[in-house]
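User: I'm curious what two different proteins look like when written out as structure tokens. Can you demonstrate?

Assistant: Sure. I'll show them one after the other, since each token string lines up with its own sequence. Here's the first protein:
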Amino acid sequence: FLMNDSVDMARDVCKAPEGYDQDLSQMLRDLISNNVPVKVCGTCMSRCGIYKNHPYFDGAEKSTMAALAEWVTDSDRVLTF
């Protein structure tokens, strides 16, 4: 679940910084291609990130905080970082 400025990671325009050995956007695409849900806070989609108004890539699902709460409640484990 992406929220706040992390929503940029699900936009095609986002590229890994030069010299950085991890491409977080590509990691999300890989998750999506493996049928792992990648959900994006709908409110944050319209108000956050430096790439505001740029489109999101296919497979990134617009979601809500209520859906996040349900996802957490239904899960066996929750990871935060």
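Here's a second, unrelated protein for contrast:
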Amino acid sequence: MRALDCRDPDAHDDIHFTADNDQDLVTKIQHHRDEYHRDITDEQIREMVTSGAYDE
């Protein structure tokens, strides 16, 4: 299981994302981005997952 946390107190409470793999994690975060962080690109999301996702 892979995980990543989103902390943005100006937009929402802390959110903990989990998925079976990094690609599924990217997809979940893209859906979240569409609602809360429209200025973040798909490439930035992939970079965040690559550098910040961890095993749970």
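A detail about the second structure: DSSP finds two helices and three strands in the chain.
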